[in-house]
Amino acid sequence: MAGKSESVSISVPYRNLRKDVEVEMVAKHQTENASSSPLNRGSDGGAAVGKDCSLVTLVLSCTVAAGVQFGWALQLSLLTPYIQTLGISHAFSSFIWLCGPITGLVVQPCVGIWSDKCTSKYGRRRPFILVGSLMISIAVIIIGFSADIGYLLGDTKEHCSTFKGTRTRAASVFIIGFWLLDLANNTVQGPARALLADLSGPDQRNTANAVFCLWMAIGNILGFSAGASGQWQEWFPFLTSRACCAACGNLKAAFLLAVVFLTICTLVTIYFAEEIPLASSKPSRIQDSAPLLDDLKLKGLDHSRSNNGIKYEKVERDMDVQLGKANNEHQDETYIEGPGSVLVNLLTGLRHLPPAMHSVLIVMALTWLSWFPFFLFDTDWMGREVYHGDPTKNSFLVELYGQGVREGAFGLLLNSVVLGISSFLIEPMCQRMGARAVWALSNFTVFACMAGTAVISLMSLRDNPEGNGHILPNETTRTAAVIVFALLGFPLAITYSVPFSVTAEVTADSGGGQGLAIGVLNLAIVIPQMIVSLGAGPWDALFGGGNLPAFVLASVAAFAAGVFALRSLPTLSSSFKSTGFHIG
């Protein structure tokens, strides 16, 4: 090793290093100038610092975010209403959303670990992005054609316009496709995030985050626009059938459009993202939950500086021993990093977190308890409480319900526009107010908006006191509902970014376990989602089957989150660096 003239790079993942050793040690020949040797990614892909790529490459490498978000927007706006047309009651429609948090809890961390170790010649992330995109395409096709598949498998032969019962086989096919879609979304999500981090250098992180959020906003806007149109079945009439009426034909066409858009975005990402394959002979990762290099004692590191570079006089042999141990640990990880081990690492890792992180987890859990009822029932609330429609009644009520769903999708479109604009305001707000106050402000905004849905529901009930559904809501009520949807884009932008930045700051001096902390933070997201998925429908059924009871509980959770954030979160610095992404 000492006798070779070329450089030898010892790369250790920077997230596992303490600040005083957050370096990459490079041995250079004495005649080379040390100042002319930037810290680039090595051939193993495991170097601490990546070389900046061009802005154009960065932009084009993130397009898959728009494709995935397009389908997610359709999923949010159309699928809860559609499952009810297949005969699944409103009380049980929330159960189908249970797969999202489950796969987010298990699949996403595992895929992240597996992509870290992937030694494909096409790179670490792109194979997972490609496979996940193919799974999304298959899933949305299954969902779109679920009524036709159920018809072929033996569902009723009565025309869909007159039959109001349960189509069991179609609903079963739909649920299979829906769960596959959530699985596929989480398969793409982790590698897409990691790819952005791989490609962007340290000075490009904020730019990369802004680009990623921009593509998400574009995907949301296009997806909600497709959901709000409600006319796809008229443009593609051949998609309707005896088992698939207007709502089904609209859904089918919109999802086929999503497949085309996702395919284009995925191909662009795969082509322009220039990954360097990971060499299988070198360790690419050290466990986040492990003691952070406490045992990696690099004693005897004596080096002399000269004008021409850095020359190591000692410890080559000691370093080889340490790297050999790391290689053996890397080989052993293959057998222990299954889904069960990931969950065990996350749960046992709670004790390694700093005390302030526990407050962050509580606020995060309350925050998502307030958000998920809205995600679940937003367009359904517009169709039922605002427009007084019902997807299981006569044709007039079905049409009213469809109008409400389309109006809700339009509100979500405005929500995405506000979210995109607000993302540029978060950094100056955090610098002026502090991240704690900004996070609390977002929760109080959610509280006000969700309480506003109760007021709007009462206004709508006043317009139709008999509840016969034959009177359209007045313009004021409809406008107020759309405004609430739009305003929620502001706190949503904060929810998608500030908690991750707070987590990064709280854990910055904890020995480098930020990867573990983000994994634990994910628990505070998915567990509330599971609670809402299991309880929201039955809870609403206790009060007559509407969405308002879940929204009222959401407002209470949001208020509690805001108060707890102000009282329990630590005082944080005024600096802000966006580290959080959200896809689906």
TrEMBL record:
Localization terms from the record: Membrane
Main localization (coarse): membrane
Listed transmembrane segments: 55-74, 94-115, 127-150, 209-233, 253-273, 360-377, 438-460, 480-504, 516-536, 548-569
Keywords, comma-separated and alphabetical: Membrane, Sugar transport, Symport, Transmembrane, Transmembrane helix, Transport
Pathway membership: Glycan biosynthesis; sucrose metabolism
Keyword Membrane: yes
One GO CC annotation: membrane
Keyword Transmembrane: yes
Any one GO MF annotation of this record: sucrose:proton symporter activity
A Pfam family that the UniProt record links to this protein: MFS_1
Membrane topology: Multi-pass membrane protein
Annotated family: Belongs to the glycoside-pentoside-hexuronide (GPH) cation symporter transporter (TC 2.A.2.4) family.
PANTHER family documented for this protein: BNAA02G26600D PROTEIN, SUGAR TRANSPORTER
Name used for this protein in its record: Sucrose transport protein SUC3 isoform X1
Source species of the chain: Raphanus sativus (Radish)
Gene responsible for this protein: LOC108833459
